[in-house]
Amino acid sequence: MASSTPQNLLDGRTAVITGAAQGIGFEIARCFVDAGARVVLGDLNLDAASAAADKLGGPEVARAVRCNVTDAGEMDTLLADAVDSFGSLDVMVNNAGITRDATMRTMSEEDFDLVVSVHLKGTWNGTRKAAAIMREAKRGAIVNISSLSGKVGMVGQTNYSAAKAGIVGMSKAAAKEMAHHGVRVNAIQPGLIRSAMTEAMPQKAWDQKMAEIPMQRAGEVDEVASVALFLASDMSSYMTGTVLEVTGGRFM
Predict the structure, then answer these.
(1) CA-to-CA distance for 43 and 115, rounded, in angstroms?
(2) Using CA atoms, how far apart are residues 62 and 77, in angstroms rounded to an integer?
(3) Domain Ketoreductase: where (predicted)?
(4) Which tens digit of pLDDT belongs to each residue from 130-157?
(5) Pairing of strands 140-145, 91-94
(6) I want to staple 225 with a disulfide (CB 3.0 to 4.6 A). Which of 31, 200, 201, 240 is the partner?
(7) Buried b / exposed e across 74-90, counting CB within 10 Å, b at 16+?
(8) For residues 131-141, b (16+ Cβ closer than 10 Å) or e, as one string?
């Protein structure tokens, strides 16, 4: 749906994207490469991340690193790979996430902890570790992927909605801490985006969500990626601590 990627917006820059083997994360990586960036794809599934990196042009422009974002040491390794391989860390996209949907009555404590850990602690690890490197360079852009679920709360997602709302608060707090160091921190809240995950939804649930969207269609992954590119680039140079909704107008 979105137009082709503007050339050269990220020329000479290095970006790290977590959860980048598929879906929105992979599309962000592809969009960044098209804009001139070199990318490091962090993912729990190294085989899938390696295949994704090959699709993007191989080791000259895209590298794959296995990373469990809840582990600060593995996050250090991921970011060090970017700096060692490509010479800098200019953009960090914290996208990795999982769902374990269930009503509060049936949700296990483990599934609550796991979702909060991957989304919220994972994004915290990525934000704080990237910020520590970027402040030395006195520049950098961090883009955190929240969700519309973090704005309105969704049935069966007390864990996911809590984590995604937390990412907004964390991004704003980090933006205030890092602004005078030249590091910007912004968040994106996608709505219903067509992906393998959402297409597995029961038809009834899909139809219900579609009825809530003024633009009357689901979003495509490239429509999230182009907003991530905007926040990663100098086009948004005077923006920090913002939350951009990519929702087709759902729940305005």
Answers:
(1) 16
(2) 16
(3) 13-196
(4) 999 999 999 999 999 999 999 999 999 9
(5) parallel
(6) 31
(7) bbeebbebbeeebebbb
(8) bebbbeeebbb
Distance of alpha carbon 175 from alpha carbon 186, whole angstroms: 7
Classify residue 235 by its DSSP letter.
Answer: G
- Residue 58, number of CB atoms within 10 A of its CB: 11
Q: How many residues does this entry show for the chain?
A: 252
199 vs 222: CA distance, rounded Å: 16
Element (H, E) at 206: helix 203-210
pLDDT in tens, 22-80: 999 999 999 999 999 999 999 999 999 999 999 999 999 999 999 999 999 999 999 99
End-to-end CA distance of the chain: 21
- Write out the two tokens for 24: 């929105």
Reply yes or no on whether 238 is catalytic.
no
Q: What are the residues whose beta carbons fall under 8 Å from the beta carbon of 182, sequence distance 6 or more?
A: 134, 135, 137, 138, 139, 140
Asked if pLDDT for residue 1 goes beyond 70, the answer is: no
Domains of the chain plus CATH, in order, are: 14-246 (3.40.50.720)
pTM check: above 0.85: yes
Characterize 163-175 residue by residue with b for buried, 16 or more Cβ atoms within 10 angstroms of its Cβ, and e for exposed. Answer: bbbbbbebbbebb
Measured between alpha carbons, how far is 238 from 75 in angstroms, rounded to an integer? 28
Q: Hunting for tokens 């490509």 — which residue is that?
A: 86
Both structure tokens of 119? 């989304």
Compute the distance between CA of residue 170 and CA of residue 48 in angstroms, rounded to an integer.
Answer: 29
